[in-house]
């Protein structure tokens, strides 16, 4: 029996691995990149672009069909929450929101695909949040060995928050789709 249940699941795990690699491989120079973006006056543009990518990831992975009114409303609500957090959070916390939000979406979608194909996956939303948060804990422990970085328990909490928000957003979109589908029958 093959490990992956479908090409989509394989692709989602590959995306997960790429996001995780990007997170870990940029640990050593993330501060330098942030300083450079700030000096060039591009920090806000970069973060807005990244937040749009997070929202795009959530919406494209969360919506399987053309959205109806309920799905658009839920999508706008999700966007509003992310925008409000983006405005209120400091730059380092914003990056956690992006990195671990996208990571959690890909893990959740891969687990959901696996479960939909008949494999046993206990509570995919919780498993996705725990997995993404676990990778965030590893991220913090790696930082113990990088002179320009610091281990921070608050960062672990932001990773958990980001993972939870992204998975809850996916669940909200799935709920809206089911509701729309039921109303259409």
Overall pLDDT: 84
Annotation field: number of helices: 7
Shape: globular
What's the main sheet like? none
**Helix and strand sequence:** HHHHHHH
Question: Structural class of the secondary structure composition?
Answer: mainly alpha
Strand segment count: 0
Give structural notes.
The chain has 185 residues and is mainly α. Helices cover 79% and strands 0% of the residues. It is built from seven helices and no strands. It starts with 6 loop residues before the first helix and ends with a helix.
What is this structure's SSE topology?
Blueprint: H1 7-25, H2 30-39, H3 43-62, H4 69-88, H5 91-116, H6 124-143, H7 153-184
Helix pairs in contact: 1-5, 3-4, 3-5, 3-7, 4-7, 5-6, 5-7, 6-7
Summary?
The chain is 79% helix and 0% strand. It has 185 residues and is mostly helical. The mean pLDDT is 84.
Pick out its properties:
185 residues, single chain, mainly alpha, 79% helix
């Amino acid at each position: 029996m093959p490990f992956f249940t479908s090409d989509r699941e394989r692709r989602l795990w590959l995306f997960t691995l790429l996001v995780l690699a990007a997170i870990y491989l940029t640990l050593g120079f993330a501060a330098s990149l942030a300083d450079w973006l700030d000096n060039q006056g591009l920090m806000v543009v970069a973060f807005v672009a990244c937040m749009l990518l997070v929202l795009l990831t959530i919406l494209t992975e969360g919506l399987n069909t053309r959205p109806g009114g309920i799905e658009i409303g839920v999508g706008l609500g999700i966007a509003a929450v992310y925008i409000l957090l983006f405005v209120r959070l400091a730059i380092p916390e914003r990056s956690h929101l992006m990195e671990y939000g996208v990571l959690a979406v890909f893990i959740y979608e891969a687990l959901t695909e696996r479960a939909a194909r008949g494999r046993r996956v206990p509570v995919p939303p919780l498993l996705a949040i725990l997995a993404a948060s676990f990778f965030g804990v590893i991220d913090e422990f790696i930082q113990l060995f990088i002179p320009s970085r610091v281990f921070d328990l608050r960062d672990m909490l932001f990773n958990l928050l980001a993972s939870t928000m992204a998975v809850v957003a996916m669940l909200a979109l799935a709920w809206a789709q089911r509701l729309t589908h039921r109303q259409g029958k």
